[in-house]
Amino acid sequence: MYLSPTKPDLDLLEVNARYRLAQELAQQAAKLAMTHYGARNELTVEHKADDHQDIVSIADRQVEDFIRQGLQSRFPGDGFVGEESGSSRIDARCIWVVDPIDGTACFLNGLHCWCVSIGLMVDGIPYLGVIADPNHDELFHGCLGQGAFVNDIPLRISQAKDVSEGLTGAGTFHPRNKAHFLPFLHTLLDSGGMFMRNGSSALTIAYVAAGRLIGYYETHLKSWDCMAGLVLIAEAGGVSNDFLRNDGLYQGNPFLVAAPGVYAQLAAMVGPSLDQN
């Protein structure tokens, strides 16, 4: 179980300016992505490293470029880590972590399970996060010390005390740690739980923060999949593992977030692999 360190001392005006900008850019980027979504059959699609499950399109790159330019025009001294364009100014105090279209496979196959995710780290701590879901007109957003919301409604973590009391998000990515996935599902089902997978890690984390799911386990995530969501979880009263340990920002790690009443139960189901790279 991971407890967030003390919130960094950052000028409130600077925080709020970045928070407003992240919300504006996420919504604008989501509209841009929707134009591509409507013409998805015309998009050029590429596979990363010969893995047919790891795909990217011109839409991902254009949306990330739009977000990156918007952030750099307002805060040129901030760092940036993006799924498609890599990193810059990683020694900066404030580092943006962006997934332009989280759930690209769903996006390209006409499924409504994708979103735009923008997170900000300050002094190595997840500080603010925005997740825009244009298909359902939902904007999940939060900032440390200011709460977390879906549109204007406060997010509240589930009060479940046992995995049998709700749905758990679960997923794996083929190249990394997939051997741990089926044993976890087996134990979850034997314990009376049930799982779901929607293809977007960022949205799944937001659903945990909103109390729609009681937890979410992924055998391996990258930081752009979860940085924004980690803020939502913390502000909604949830618990997460220490995802950023051992260079998690750049290499990723196993991932678990959950309601406090079921976190220990789910972590035991995952086992020692949760703390391994």
List the helices and strands and how they pair.
Blueprint: H1 12-38, E1 45-48, E2 51-57, H2 58-74, E3 79-82, E4 86-88, E5 94-102, H3 104-108, E6 115-122, E7 125-133, E8 138-143, E9 147-150, E10 153-154, E11 167-171, H4 181-190, E12 194-196, H5 201-209, E13 215-221, H6 223-236, E14 239-240, H7 248-251, E15 253-258, H8 260-270
Parallel strand pairs: 3-5, 11-12, 11-13
Antiparallel strand pairs: 1-2, 3-4, 5-6, 6-7, 7-8, 8-9, 9-10, 13-15, 14-15
The strand count comes to 15
- What's the helical proportion of residues? 25-40%
Spatial strand arrangement across the major sheet? 4-3-5-6-7-8-9-10
Main beta-sheet strand count, sense and barrel state: 8 strands, mixed
Radius of gyration: 17 Å
Sheet-strand content, in percent, reads 25-35%
- Arithmetic mean pLDDT: 91
- Which stretches are poorly predicted, pLDDT < 50 over at least 5 residues? none
How many helices?
A: 8
N-to-C CA distance: 16 Å
One letter per element, helices H and strands E, the order comes to HEEHEEEHEEEEEEHEHEHEHEH
Overall outline: globular
Question: Structural class, please?
Answer: alpha+beta
Write structural notes for this entry.
With 277 residues, this protein is α+β, with helices and mostly antiparallel strands. Helix content is 35%, strand content 29%. A hairpin with a 2-residue loop joins strand 9 and strand 10. Helix 1 packs antiparallel against helix 2 and helix 5 runs parallel beside helix 6. The mean pLDDT is 91.
